[in-house]
Structures
1.
Amino acid sequence: MKLNAPKAVLAALALGAAPVSMIALSAPAAAQIVPGIAIANPDAIVAASSAFQNAETQRQTTYKAQIDQAEARRAQIAAQLEPLYTKLEADSQAASPNRQALQQQAAQIQQIEQSGQAEINRMLQPVALSRAYVVEQISDQLTAAMDAAKAKRKITLVISPSAVISAEQAYNLNQDVVNELNRLIPNAQLVPPAGWMPRAQREAAAAQQQAQQPAAAAPAGR
């Protein structure tokens, strides 16, 4: 962590009266880096990996039809909403606006927006599923990449950035882990297999299936 200059030096500098010898003697010492500690952001690491970046680029071509369809529908919905917004704004600026009518107009706009967004999300579901598939493949290698980076840097404690107020760049382990990820998984599969679900959904489905199974019969007493 960087050390703050003594208050006396700051005051003297503000007055323009600090002698050179005083500044030199009181200057902060070089930052001391504590060995064995590092900071890492797993989400940022995954997003910075070559596999993720390559997939983001390839997805624009592989799923172009779905993306174009969603963008066209988004433009249609925007065109449908534009006159409704214009009318709502004009009616709200009337001398004696009809509050009930304004509420009905606002509710209509909200309903169109929500249903339109749901429709677009359905169109883009294959795109979202592809991204989730890529992220899961990379995340599966994250622990190994983190361990390798820790070993090379002789790190024994890794802290989340959210727990740190300020730190020297030397503590940042992100790029080291990204380098290891790029070695372990330079590219990821872009298109998930048929029926694939993200891990959270698979685990939830498995838990539900297990809960629905009848409890095993208790062993009969002797």
2.
Amino acid sequence: MTKAYDVVKSHYDASDRGDLDGMLAPISPQARWTEAEGFPCAGTYVGPGAIRDNVFVALGRLFDGFTFTLDTLLDAGSHAVGVGSYSATSKATGKSFNARVVHLWTVEDGKVVRFEQFADTAIVARAMR
């Protein structure tokens, strides 16, 4: 059985390559993906298509150079925890930001079934104003 750590690492590796299909590959069709309240694409989205459109495509419309930099990936059995930073420049204001973030992942049978983001949304909001 594939460990949660390895599944999540494959997502982050694909992100580093700019490979959206690779990022979505380990996502279960029933996966619940939650972006933090106060974040530009806040909400819970179910399945790879909704996640792609409401998170990754939405961020591309709002920001130039949106990047997640992973500092630490923790193995927690059927869970993994990614700690890092988001950076980008708001297309509307031209302001840049660098915000700390934690991602909590749950993996079952080699697929991501749950994701929750915890982010410093105030920093992102300031860049958008």
3.
Amino acid sequence: MEPIETPAGQAGEDLGALLRCVLSENPGLTQKRIAERAGIPYATLNAWVTGRRGAGGRIASDDLRALADALPPAYPASRVFAAAGRRTPADLDAEREARLLEIYRALDTDQQRALVEMARALAKLPRPRRAG
């Protein structure tokens, strides 16, 4: 499938176009089956396919990851997130999350607010390219 311009003007696939491609390349796969596998309401998935509901930042990362897990291997999470115009978040590591939460809980209210703002700013930074 050729990349197309996303509504945000970034090069990449549109989530609806990606899902239509999945369905056309996998005749035995239906919207209903994808929705069931992903644990997403059929109406929501259908709205993504038809473009009645935008992808952008409105779709929860967990829903995009569940969608990727429900699709054939040719459509990994990185491709689904890119189609939604989003960066693929790192896999959740319970130990790192627990350490971060422990640090957060030890902070006072102002420090917690500052940490949240720093995390938001960090999430907006471009990712460094990996060598390889």
4.
Amino acid sequence: MASITAFGGAFVRAHDPEALYGWYEKHLGLGRSGGYFAFPASEQRTQVVFALFGADDEYFPRSQNVMINLQVDDLDAMLDRLAELGVEVDNHRESFDFGRFGWFTDPEGNRVELWQPAAHTEPTAVGES
């Protein structure tokens, strides 16, 4: 039987994709390759999570169908740098046994989650202990 072997990507609609690409390149240091951002398997620090939330869940804005979660190696430094650049950064940060989380809002109003994975741990569902 055929099976899913990995997460292939995330696709986000934008009012101005070129401007949003430029913003992510400038503010997060992402580099485009082939017209998209790619994270080679050799650079992945932990597993990729694909989670489904109820339509009325408040974990991210209800008006937003998808929230991107990006892995970082230093959550505080990344969020501090974004704030210094004038990016809307949520001051709230959360810690779990599988890592730390923080959020910012991109120019199109998308809430984006940053995850600093804990070393040598496997993620569990948000809210589980």
